[in-house]
Amino acid sequence: MSDDKIKHETVEHHQQTHYLMREIPKSDIINEFGDIETFEKATKQNMTDEEYDSDLGDKYDEFLQNYDYERTTDTWTMVKGGYDTEEQIVEEWTNPDNI
């Protein structure tokens, strides 16, 4: 840092929702799961439920890895204006890789 300047940094903490969108042929689902209903059951499972089927969950996760997806991101804290910031004077930038 030079003697005639300081490094001032503002860090904004945002929350985001990511949407991963896949188009999967029904025939692939039927070949892997036997029917669409079983795939839908896997989609709706929650790991914290007592009746959670871990084998079906693993199969579902592995199956989805075979398909590309489009991603969109909603940084909803930017829209709602509700995010925290930190102001600081630093010797070195916190995240220099993005400069």
Structure overview:
This protein has 99 residues and is α+β, with helices and mostly antiparallel strands. The protein has two domains: 1-18 and 74-99, no CATH class; 23-67. It has four helices and four strands, in the order ββαααβαβ. The protein has helices spanning 26-33, 36-44, 54-64, 76-80, and strands spanning 7-13, 17-21, 70-74, 84-90.
Tertiary shape: elongated
Task: Please tally the β strands and state the result.
Answer: 4
Helix content percent band: 25-40%
Give the low-confidence spans: none
Strand content: 15-25%
Helix count from the secondary structure assignment: 4
Structural class: alpha+beta
How many domains, in number, for the residues?
A: 2
**Span between N and C termini?**
16 Å
Gyration radius, in Å: 22 Å
Q: Order of helices and strands, N to C? A: EEHHHEHE
Strand order of the largest sheet: 1-4
Mean residue pLDDT: 85
Largest β-sheet summary = 2 strands, antiparallel
